[in-house]
Amino acid sequence: MDSYLSIERIGMRFTRGSAVSEVLVDVDLGIAKGEFVSIIGHSGCGKSTLLNIVGGLIRSTTGEVLLDGQVVDSPGPDRAIVFQNHSLLPWLTVYGNVRIAVDKVFGRTKNAAERHDWVMHNLALVHMAHAKDKRPGEISGGMKQRVGIARALAMQPKILLMDEPFGALDALTRAHLQDSVMEIHAALGNTVLMITHDVDEAVLLSDRIVMMTNGPAATIGEVLDIPLARPRRRLALADDPAYAASRVQVLRFLYERQRFTTAAA
Ligand SMILES: Nc1ncnc2c1ncn2[C@@H]1O[C@H](COP(=O)(O)OP(=O)(O)OP(=O)(O)O)[C@@H](O)[C@H]1O
After folding, report:
1. Which of 91, 129, 190, 255 is the most buried (most CB within 10 A)?
2. What is the separation, in whole angstroms, between the first and last Cα of the chain?
3. The complex's ipTM?
């Protein structure tokens, strides 16, 4: 496979005084351009640590990450991150929150009118153009996540990194956002690496699911291809045997092969 993102033999050890914790060992993963890959694994196994290494927020102890042939060693606009708890600036409007990122990334290459249009285009993609003048305190959690996604997309990153983006939302809002993300992925062909705890979400959205072993010293246990044609519709999939089979494989991995142990909590 031609890897656009290449995670090569990543190891991560945290040292505090004489205490050393081995969190990740020998993590190897290649992601193709346009692929949607999810990472699933029990709490504490090191999923966020891995995503933060890819984002350049922390440096791995061993191994390296390459994106489009470039070594990742610091944060950059080519890797936009969407966190579980939106990170919008409360004093700016919805528009302002996206505009600030657009000005930063495209300040030299697009003029003010183009930047305005680009902000509005990305707000429209997540169905938030109507709320452009509202402040984060005036909109729901789901809407805030939509704005966070618009801001990330507006940076035109090479890869979109999402750390449990829908984790704090109720089931219905979550379903709407998943549908939006699928629409956007179909329209733009983004490369996405997403952490989730939700097996149905992973199967619905992903081309492949990366299943991590329990920590400490976690690594990739199995990678599952999801053989479901796109576009995917959640209602139709409910009766699809291929959907059920993928789901069972992830559940087996998590609850039989990698049973949650208190040591991993
Ligand atoms: N800066 C740090 N210093 C020391 N240990 C850390 C640090 N960051 C993370 N860890 C440890 O690394 C392990 C993995 O944490 P991480 O947050 O990556 O797991 P996770 O799989 O994302 O968990 P969850 O699903 O609960 O969010 C945990 O044991 C955590 O305590």
Report:
1. 190
2. 35
3. 0.96
